[in-house]
Amino acid sequence: MKKYVYMFQEGNSKMKDLLGGKGANLAEMTRIGLPVPQGFTISTQACNLFYEKGEKLTEEIKEEIYTYLSQLEQETGKTFGSKENPLLVSVRSGAAISMPGMMDTILNLGLNDDTVLALAEKTQNERFAYDSYRRFIQMFSDVVLSIPKYKFDHILERVKEENNFMEDTQLTAEHLKEIVKEYKKIVKSEVRRAFPQEPREQLLMAVEAVFASWNNPRAIAYRRYNEIPHEIGTAVNVQSMVFGNMGNDCGTGVAFTRNPSTGEKKLFGEFLLNAQGEDVVAGIRTPKTISQLQQLMPEVYDQFIKTTEILEKHYRDMQDIEFTIEESKLFILQTRSGKRTAEAAMRVAVELVEEGLISKEEAILRIDAKQLDQLLHPTFEPRALEAAQMLAQGLPASPGAARGKIYFTAEKIIEAANNGEKTILVRQETSPEDIEGMYAAQGILTARGGMTSHAAVVARGMGKCCVAGCETIKVNEQKREFVIEGRVFTEGDFISLDGSTGKVYRGDIATIEPTLSGSFGELMQWADEIRSLLVRTNADTPADARTAVKFGAQGIGLCRTEHMFFDESRILSVRKMIFAKTTEQREKALEELLPVQREDFEGIYEAMGERPVTIRLLDPPLHEFLPHSGKEMQDLANNLEISLEEVKEIAESLKEFNPMLGHRGCRLAITYPEITIMQTKAIIQAAIAVSKKNNITIKPEIMVPLIGTVKELKYLKDVIHETAREIIKEAEVDLDYLVGTMIEVPRATLTADEIAQEADFFSFGTNDLTQMTFGFSRDDAGKFLKEYVEKDILEQDPFQSIDQEGVGKLVEMAVELGRKVKPDLKIGICGEHGGDPESIKFFHKTGLSYVSCSPYRVPIARLSAAQAQILNKR
Amino acid sequence: MKKYVYMFQEGNSKMKDLLGGKGANLAEMTRIGLPVPQGFTISTQACNLFYEKGEKLTEEIKEEIYTYLSQLEQETGKTFGSKENPLLVSVRSGAAISMPGMMDTILNLGLNDDTVLALAEKTQNERFAYDSYRRFIQMFSDVVLSIPKYKFDHILERVKEENNFMEDTQLTAEHLKEIVKEYKKIVKSEVRRAFPQEPREQLLMAVEAVFASWNNPRAIAYRRYNEIPHEIGTAVNVQSMVFGNMGNDCGTGVAFTRNPSTGEKKLFGEFLLNAQGEDVVAGIRTPKTISQLQQLMPEVYDQFIKTTEILEKHYRDMQDIEFTIEESKLFILQTRSGKRTAEAAMRVAVELVEEGLISKEEAILRIDAKQLDQLLHPTFEPRALEAAQMLAQGLPASPGAARGKIYFTAEKIIEAANNGEKTILVRQETSPEDIEGMYAAQGILTARGGMTSHAAVVARGMGKCCVAGCETIKVNEQKREFVIEGRVFTEGDFISLDGSTGKVYRGDIATIEPTLSGSFGELMQWADEIRSLLVRTNADTPADARTAVKFGAQGIGLCRTEHMFFDESRILSVRKMIFAKTTEQREKALEELLPVQREDFEGIYEAMGERPVTIRLLDPPLHEFLPHSGKEMQDLANNLEISLEEVKEIAESLKEFNPMLGHRGCRLAITYPEITIMQTKAIIQAAIAVSKKNNITIKPEIMVPLIGTVKELKYLKDVIHETAREIIKEAEVDLDYLVGTMIEVPRATLTADEIAQEADFFSFGTNDLTQMTFGFSRDDAGKFLKEYVEKDILEQDPFQSIDQEGVGKLVEMAVELGRKVKPDLKIGICGEHGGDPESIKFFHKTGLSYVSCSPYRVPIARLSAAQAQILNKR
Fold first, then answer.
1. What kind of architecture, by CATH, is found in domain A378-512?
2. Residue B731 has what DSSP assignment?
3. Domain ranges of chain A
4. Does B813 lie at the interface with A, CB-CB under 8 angstroms?
């Protein structure tokens, strides 16, 4: 026969899947001799069986529960329903993964009209007994019978009002007896049956209710949000009650073995005298700090300190402990690893290593890589945030907190920034022309676009706060205003953005700057020693490159050359190139661009030293560079000596239905090889210059975007080689360089063996690969992606974490085909996924050589890469 | 030692790869005893070696050529360079696949200042000898020495002028001697050496020149156009000369054993007395018909007739024969399968089967499926076409010939058509709103868009002539004019279009209507008996459906429901649905659409009877249905009782950056399930109604577009089932239906095993699959695809013939994964590739159940499917 119920002493901490986290910990604490009120756990398998049988407990399980109940009665010397020494129990849920506050709990189960008398008699405290009973009825009715709490609260309030009481504690035993009567009446009228008096019936009903609460909406939502599988189910813990509310030698509290905000090694906690656990959580009374316990009950305090030390050593981690003191006797009700801030997590992990409790590998695994963002960006001052008014919710596109006056154009932002103002750029969506404004602003807010929209990608690269795709705001750029639900915000109004949550607030909320502790540096160094996956950065400017190096980047995996084209001093030359009617005209415009592009690369080589730099040739469709205003068009017409009409005509002819799938990337380069020639010249000439100047060896990596067939690469490689070799020969130097390709078109993954024959390296462009594999435009998908996640059609946004099943299959295929031809082929990834921990683990497993991510994600990538290495070895 | 040269008697007709088509045929004719002037063939392997060695003949091959030359001298009794009996030869190219007129030929090789005297002496015809010599010098100089022909022509003309001659034949031997002298001077001044006098040197130079001509630009272009591999190389045939120009008992001609235009079994050909082959080809003199030979040389005629009969029986196909008569002696210089029209091909194939010469399978393989288009569409009257002036060249988007007055809007077209005018719709690009105009027009011309642009797809569906992506015309729709190279065409001007070639002509060119012969029906029936791949059609209207059935369609593989939405009477309801602010409003608008949509389906079921009909749910992005003009917007605003402002705002919010990858297909259906509910109702209700009315069993196939993950399908399947089952239950009938999916997103192919679990059938949407796998927008790719093919980066437009290496890999993967889960899964393809012969062969091999193509391509598909079956069995 299958076993579904376990006494605490039968289990241990390794049985989390079966007993849930709480059950396994209660068992473990029992096992190591800590004062835990005894009880038993009904396993997660019972929960699954419960759902299989149409949300019913089987007879088999019921019998088993009764058996274990008897054993508990024997151990405690108390009996369910006894009029002398009644057993009371708590019934609590507990899944393998902690879901705090998400499911239901019932205390004081076993009370009825008889046992309440016995409890009063035994404790010589009638008030306590009836207070417990009325709490039980309300809790049971809420959780099991689905009677809303407020119906009971009304009665309590009425009685207090009638007696002019302010506090619950002013109620006497007589008042509480009255209240219990009224409560039972409510139950009868609501569910047309009397409140169940039989403790065993109470127990089975409670167990069923806890199992059923696994699928209540907030639990489902919590699991979805935290990526917890729905199938694991919850266990139920039935534990004999101890009472913190039997008088002033009683109490209840929670404590952390270290400070969960800073990580400082000092007991941190609070407790209430004469109270039950729910009072602490509810925040009705102001609790005392744990140090005050020392004065009030020195012996209990000493015992508690010893216990916490045992627990931390035993679990080898900072613990979050719930305890109750019943008539000066300490009971531990729960222990678990404590939630903590990133800063605390770092410090605790490093100090635990120093204390010899855990290994460096364990320390690395203990850190949630995603949490590192907190450390690298400003956050709101918590009290200021509490008072703030939220206006809207967008996508958390780039983390950090920002506050400032709103402006609607890059020009205005730059002007205001020059006047020393803090600013927020608000746009329908950003375009490459906004770059300067984005640099100057504190944060960026857009009404459209997803997590990989232009605004989001660029902001993350800059480490700048950005809330994108905030569809409830209606931006009117001409009127210089936006509207949220009828409320108008105009130029110069203050707002604040939280790029980590996507929330938009009214007004100017104070922020705190981040500080990087020594623990951070130490942990990162350990990570670097362990990981095999290299970490590069996506950087287009010397400033970005320097930031990334500071954060530990080992090279540049993606330098986008087009961002340089939007500078005001260059855009005219770029447009002349685009509007050229002959190859000669185009070459002339490119000649103007050559020196500035060369300077760009020189700056980047200077910042990176001998670290590898991968430069991608021009990628976006040409129409991104088109003039928009009449003035810009006229300027261009004058400059090119053609009519305004003609300028408009050419601009029109460059428009595309689906620019993402249009004339861009290597397709442009094949149509206009002169662009590739200019860029190759700039790359090679700059490398020669900086190599000479600094007496270092620079080996540029030239990357051709959007290859779909090997012949495209072959064609452009010939152009690049011809250009580069001539320059190198003329300069009479020894310069080596690589020519590789982005793998971002599905067809490239399918024919990667052929492409590998012509490529010195591969770099996955997983943004575009995801777009094309799903057929999702990242700029348009916002409209339905959110709904897809809500309706559980997608588990997560595939632009944030790589879709391992679909897109990942293509990645694996390309790696396999590529390495079949060139076993040592250097393969990286430079899409947004290069900074996502889950994706990094996948890339490590797939055998990639490096990931490349935005500068502010480099530490996350270093840590994730180390974690991947450790996990993969296990 | 490897053998590179073969005497004619050493070869046979099976050695085409080695000896080329001409060489193998000369060998074969020699083998069966026909009168062929003797000679030898230098193999295609020698050609490849020639290119390997940097365009040089190896010493080894030269020696071998000399050896075989000696043998030829022995056999003919003539000697190279002999002053008594000189051997003269022709040197001709001949690849394994015929490339008529694409490479170079040299006649009379072996003549020099000495042998010309011997020839004069031997033939007693000095004029003939010098005429041959001057021809040889000119031809050799052109082909081998690259001296332009016109330089020699000038001299000939000058001499004629000086003597007031009209015809070459008026030139005397003396004149020709003078001309030869002058010709040799030209050679000397052009190439700074004397005209080579040594026949062996002449021969080697000629062989090298023929090999080199394999890679001349027109030969490369021809191979690209005809999809002939560049690597196969050409052979060179060296054959002893016979002379048709030695007097009036001599002549030369070509003949077809059957009529190449109609296929009629009657010798068809022409000849010239006293002429060499080049005179026939050049068209200088008007040739006589072959029947006139009977009067002039009855014995030769009889021998020739017998020879043609032998050849046709031997080769079991209609032959194209070149012959020469030298002093009343017949020589066969070449025979090959004759090129023919589609009509002739049909008739010849069927009659050869009836004559017992070939099997039905062979007859089917003999037809070029692509050629069938000729049979189904009007063509230009050939003489009228000769006189026509070509204006521009676009893409051959939908075959047939059309002529009419140009108009620039659908409204104008309809108005003109109602007045009985023939019209051509000219647009920058068409949109779904142009459908009615496209129906009313004779043909469609667009300036933008590729082979699978809206105009192209819709026109092919209608069987209507269309030239798309004609980028040299500048359309100004507002001015109602288009401009080609400065010349303006305005509303009402006549143009003519050839949709089979993409050519645009000035004026009104007469057309001929097609007729379908009995042979066509017979051949199609044989094809149907043989093929296992079913052929369905893409049809959106009852009219299209009826056309397709007439052409043999076995069902509908794709019925696009959105085309129905553009009808003037419906578009307002569609817009109300899109602009609805609540689900109620949307449902109300959908209620208006339900009866009309139901009617659409009833019409289609009526046309198809019990044949299966696959209906695809709404696919395009909603913005395609948006109002454009101010009036349309105002109408909508009035109707919805909202402000014009609001209409504009909603329209703006529906715009997408990349609509192809946006909110469309199943994504729309998931956001607005009420649309799916309405469409399901219409599909099922119509099926019930027509089943009852006609007492037949209709089993609709509902197809969900753009599935990327199984959960999308599952979600919509639930919606469809719920709706359909309720209707079926209410109607108290027995109606079966299927729910399947398009496989068109790369991710769907990668997870086809999961999707198969929920799908009753798959249908590949290879248009979208090609777009996403290549990352090509079919509407924008025109800009670079042409260049890609020209630069040999792509062998062909992947939207026309499926890319087997990339896209095909995904198709194979999906079939394998799908059938692993459901071995009998019905899998079709309904993209444009369903009508392309090469693609159909691929789909047959991949194991698909059916292909679906536009009605006018159904016969092509039936034939191709049969060919695939036969080829696969072999």
1. 3-Layer(bba) Sandwich (3.50)
2. H
3. 242-340, 378-512, 531-621+656-873
4. no
For chain B, how big is the Rg over CA atoms in Å?
33
| Cβ distance of A805 and B750 shorter than 8 Å | yes
> Does pLDDT of A417 surpass 70?
yes
Please, are residues B145 and B208 in contact by the beta-carbon 8 Å criterion? no
> Cβ of A572: how many Cβ atoms within 10 Å?
17
Task: Give the Cα separation of A738 and A763 in Å (integer).
Answer: 13
Q: What are φ and ψ of residue A499, in 5° steps?
A: -75, -10
Closest CA to B434 of B125, B500, B449: B449
Please check whether residue A473 is in contact with residue A449, taking contact to mean a CB–CB distance below 8 angstroms.
no
Q: Do A794 and B751 touch (CB under 8 A)?
A: no
Across the A:B interface, residue pairs with CB atoms under 8 Å apart total 168
Least confident range from A749-758, B56-65, B457-466: namely B457-466
User: Are B709 and A793 within 8 A, CB to CB?
Assistant: yes
Q: Is A646 on the interface with B (CB under 8 A)?
A: no
Q: Are strands A487-490 and A481-484 parallel, antiparallel or unpaired?
A: antiparallel
Find all residues with CB under 8 Å of A841, minimum gap 6, and list them: A864, A867, A868, A871
Quote the minimal CA–CA distance from A479 to chain B in Å.
Answer: 15
Cα dihedral across residues B643, B644, B645, B647: positive or negative: positive
Exposure pattern of A414-426 as b/e (b: 16+ CB <10 Å)? bebbeeeebbbbb
**pLDDT score recorded for residue A278:** 66
Q: What is the pLDDT of residue A281?
A: 58
DSSP assignment of B373-387, as one string? HHHHS-EE-HHHHHT
Is this structure's pTM higher than 0.95? no
Interface residue of B230, B430, B772 to substitute, partner A, most A CBs within 10 Å:
B772
Q: How far apart are CA A614 and CA A554, in angstroms?
A: 12
Q: Given its phi and psi angles, is residue A848 left (phi above 0), alpha (psi -120 to 50 degrees) or beta?
A: beta
Mutate to test the interface with B, among A453, A654, A780 (most CBs of B within 10 A): A780
How confident is the model over A645-654, as a mean pLDDT? 87
Strands B234-240 and B39-42: antiparallel
**Residue (of A530, A466, A558, A615) closest to A855 by Cα position:** A558
What residues contact A374, with CB distance under 8 A and at least 6 apart? A341, A342, A343, A399, A500, A514
Domain at A531-621+656-873, CATH class: alpha beta
Q: Which of residues 739-798 of A touch B (CB under 8 A)?
A: 744-747, 750-751, 768, 771-777, 779-781, 783-784, 787-788, 791-794
The Cα–Cα gap between A871 and A479 comes to 55
Contacting residues of A for B794, CB less than 8 Å apart: 709, 711
Radius of gyration of chain A (CA): 33
Q: What is the pLDDT of residues A376-387, one digit of tens each?
A: 888 888 788 888
Residue B710: Cβ-neighbour burial (10 angstroms; 0-12, 13-18, 19+): buried
Residue A765 near residue A744 (C-beta atoms within 8 A): yes
- Mean pLDDT across chain B, nearest whole number? 91
Q: Is A470 marked active-site?
A: no
**What is the distance of C-alpha A700 from the center of its chain?**
35
Residue among A772, A806, A810 whose CB faces B775 most closely: A772
Alpha carbons A556 and A547: distance in angstroms, whole number: 12
Contacts of B355-362 with C-beta under 8 Å, sequence gap 24+, read B357/B312, B357/B313, B357/B316, B358/B316, B358/B317, B360/B526, B360/B529, B360/B530, B361/B530, B361/B870, B362/B316
Least confident of A149-158, A203-212, B564-573, B666-675: B564-573
B242-340 adopts what CATH topology? D-amino Acid Aminotransferase; Chain A, domain 1 (3.30.470)
Rounded to an integer, what distance in angstroms lies between the CA atom of residue B647 and that of residue B644?
5
From start to end of A146-190, where are the E strands? none
